[in-house]
């Protein structure tokens, strides 16, 4: 499916754009934005604080290969994980950011000119995203708040119609158990990638991959 890009061409390189996370003023502004939205929509945001750079880097490293291609992010919030993806050398124009909060969407369009920002519930956004051919996907969605059937639909759709064969989805959780476990479709390889202690709160990164008939991911 062809998706129109939103935003203006960037005058900064991807690495220059990603430096915003390291600027104290930008960091404070984004922290304030996140806390205001988390207070206003606690069940949809699902986190009390923004993810640390250590967690964001772990998510990007877990699922996004070094080769160029489309990358999909679910629930990017203020764009901290997106920063990590850009630092890996990916051009913002290859990013598809799916975010339900309108304030976060406006912020993402300003922060990552050229990226495709879709304001939508994740499940609804997945319906038209067929044969997308993404090289990887990351998720900051509070999947533990989803119904079991919704979690299964989300994972099956991402594995079958969003990422390329062998592509991975990375998801973090504040719990030690995978948020996509017993209710996951058959044929999905589930692996614990890492535990990130330098985050408030400590988090676990899990990866999911469609198993090939003769080998694991």
Question: Topology of this protein?
Answer:
Elements: H1 14-18, H2 24-40, H3 42-45, H4 53-63, E1 71-74, H5 80-87, E2 95-99, H6 102-111, E3 116-119, H7 122-126, E4 134-139, H8 148-162, E5 163-173, E6 188-196, E7 203-210
Parallel strand pairs: 1-2, 1-4, 2-3, 4-5
Antiparallel strand pairs: 5-7, 6-7
Helix pairs in contact: 4-5
Description:
- With 217 residues, this protein is of the alpha/beta class.
- Helix content is 35%, strand content 22%.
- The protein has helices at 14-18, 24-40, 42-45, 53-63, 80-87, 102-111, 122-126, 148-162, and strands at 71-74, 95-99, 116-119, 134-139, 163-173, 188-196, 203-210.
- The chain has a seven-stranded mixed β-sheet with strand order 3-2-1-4-5-7-6, with helices on both faces.
- Strand 2 (95-99), helix 6 and strand 3 form a beta-alpha-beta unit.
- Helix 4 (53-63) crosses helix 5.
- 40% of the residues are buried.
